[in-house]
Amino acid sequence: MNLPVIILGGGGHAKVLIEALKTSKRTILGITDADPAKHNMLIMGIPVLGDDGAVLHHLPGSIRLVNGMGSVNVPRARTALFEKFKSKGYAFVTVVHPSAVIASDVALGEGAQIMAGAVIQPGSTIGMNTIVNTKASVDHDCSIGDHVHISPGVTLSGDIRVADEVHLGTGATVIQGIRIGRNSLIGAGSVVVTDVPENTEYAGVPARQRASKIS
Ligand code: JB3
């Protein structure tokens, strides 16, 4: 039986998730948000219940959570929210928009979110709390880590390894066989043709390391 869900965060990413959940006919109990100005509002017809404390009024076994925090640059806040509620015994649902095309052998980690028009080809794995956003494509035999954000329109060729907490900016392209290290950031529109070390920012066509290193 599909338990009702509460969405953590009531911003732009939450709206995309609400659309996917409604299309999938999932019962949404409400949204929590850190901004008091949003409390008791309706977002796409869904009530904002209060801050995250409102989750604790429900036993972990009676609901499921959806991480409504998106991420730009580094996904630290999103990751922390996921880990906070996992440590309290709550479980996250995997959200898949019905228009996404996912091969039958693809493994999705807990709380993975596959948005409208995304394509994931055979042999690929998607980690926990990872977003494959609108119209992004992950080709065959890719390994995508936990807490990764594959932004809208990203194109990953085959046999790519993306480590945990990587942010791939909107429309980035990565050629086959590339390895991208943990906690790195790939700028929007970049074309990645060489491996990317961990904790670095790469951008451009072809992508080159930027001066700064992510803290
Ligand atoms: O790039 C795309 C397609 N989407 C972006 C997404 C991936 O990331 C989007 O454009 C934004 O850049 C971002 O979406 P997000 O996280 O929805 O951004 P924003 O619209 O700023 O909403 C964040 C919401 O989270 C705000 O309403 C905050 O008040 C709320 N928030 C912050 N910390 C929190 C917390 N809510 C809860 N429940 N708990 C928190 O700890």
For the record, give the distance between the C-alpha atoms at the N and C termini, rounded to a whole number.
43 Å
Coarse shape: globular
- Helix-strand string: EHEEEEHEEEEEEEEEEEEEEEEEEE
Number of helices: 2
Largest sheet: 8 strands, mixed
| Number of separate domains | 2
Rounded radius of gyration (Å): 17 Å
Task: Describe this protein's structure.
- With 215 residues, the protein is mainly β.
- The chain folds into 2 domains: 5-87, 3-Layer(aba) Sandwich (Rossmann fold); 95-204, UDP N-Acetylglucosamine Acyltransferase, domain 1 (3 Solenoid), CATH 2.160.10.10.
- Helices cover 11% and strands 30% of the residues.
- The protein contains 2 helices and 24 strands.
- It has an 8-stranded mixed beta sheet, covered by helices on one side.
- Helix 1 (12-23) links the parallel strand 1 and strand 2.
- The longest helix has 12 residues, at 12-23.
- The site of GDP-N-acetylperosamine has 21 residues, from helix 1.
- Residues 8-14, 32-35, 38, 52, 69-72, 81, 133, 151-152 line the site of GDP-N-acetylperosamine.
How is the secondary structure organized here?
Blueprint: E1 5-8, H1 12-23, E2 28-32, E3 42-43, E4 46-50, E5 64-67, H2 76-87, E6 95-96, E7 101-102, E8 107-108, E9 113-114, E10 119-120, E11 125-126, E12 131-132, E13 137-138, E14 143-144, E15 149-150, E16 155-156, E17 161-162, E18 167-168, E19 173-174, E20 179-180, E21 185-186, E22 191-192, E23 200-203, E24 208-213
Parallel strand pairs: 1-2, 1-5, 2-4, 6-9, 7-10, 8-11, 9-12, 10-13, 11-14, 12-15, 13-16, 14-17, 15-18, 16-19, 17-20, 18-21, 19-22, 21-23
Antiparallel strand pairs: 3-4, 23-24
Bound molecules: GDP-N-acetylperosamine.
